[in-house]
Amino acid sequence: MKIGIHGKEFDDQSAIIIQQLLHYLVDKNAEVFLSNGYDVILKESSVEFTTYSIYNPDTLSTLDALITLGGDGTLLDVVSQIGALETPILGINMGRLGFLATTSKEDVLQAVDLLFEGNYEFDERILLRLETESNAFGQKNFALNDVTVLKKDTSSMIVVHTYINGNFLNSYWADGLIISTPTGSTGYSLSCGGPLVLPQSSNFILTPVSPHNLTARPMVLADDSEIILKIGGRSDTVLLSLDSRHETVEAGVELKIVKEKFMARLIKLPNNQIFDTLRQKLNWGIDIRN
Fold it and tell me: Which CATH number fits domain 128-259: 2.40.10.340, 3.40.309.10, 2.60.200.30, 3.90.105.20?
């Protein structure tokens, strides 16, 4: 089995677990591929591995699975690398529990066993695709969590004229507007008052950021909707982001957002339920008085 590994810098405690993982994979006769950059961090490892470029799809297309070591941000990085290849992703959380990287570092060896046994399911998540005249973000114009348009720095509010399937919805005077997937409903959208939406729901969520009009509430749409945003206001530029990636674009830009043709394939291990993650991450049912 060909296994890719991508991660970020780690502490001494995590280093021990990562070395255990590498040796465990080799003991199972896996062919290990480390992303360039991460291979430099692990250069002292005694395990033989091949380095792959995160910008080269040739190696990524041959992998049976790609393991991320980090948090949700690390997994989002890998989604942008994989794109339409739909290589399965197993997220190992090296810190606190994540919404996407839900397997703890203490369970990493057990997770590898389940992976090699084929004891898992694919959790397919929809993506957003952003289309602009300026071809912002190039070929990586998709997002697993959200597409967000925001005012820059301390500039005044922007206005986002919003159209759904060709019909005018609203002009949001706000600090910005978030268009999220069900996966992204637990991210930035949630912190701005958006609803929790289960991952397999066929929806998009529109969530204004600090709207001037307090009656501008989050809205749930069908995921076959075509969303057009026309940006105005007093600022010359606005900040446009896809998950953790961002670019500055000219105000007045028109954005088209639709569901991407391909999906992100996450590896879901047994007994890994979204309701458990929500309870643990959001501390539901915990009473500090007890």
Answer: 2.60.200.30
How deeply is 107 buried, as exposed, middle or buried, from its count of CB atoms within 10 A (0-12, 13-18, 19+)? middle
219-222 and 203-209 strand pairing: antiparallel
| Catalytic residue from among 27, 58, 72, 224 | 72
72 is catalytic: yes
pLDDT digits (tens, 9 = 90+) for 172-213: 999 999 999 999 999 999 999 999 999 999 999 999 999 998
What are 274's two structure tokens? 């979204």
Strand segments, DSSP code E, in 132-268 are 142-143, 146-150, 158-164, 167-174, 176-180, 203-209, 219-222, 227-233, 237-242, 245-250, 254-259, 264-268
Residues of the chain with CATH 3.40.50.10330: 2-125+263-282
Q: What is the DSSP letter of 106?
A: G
DSSP-based three-state secondary structure for 114: helix
pLDDT digits (tens, 9 = 90+) for 127-180: 999 999 888 899 899 999 999 999 987 778 999 999 999 999 999 999 999 999
CATH class, range 2-125+263-282? alpha beta
Q: Which two tokens stand for residue 99?
A: 């919404």
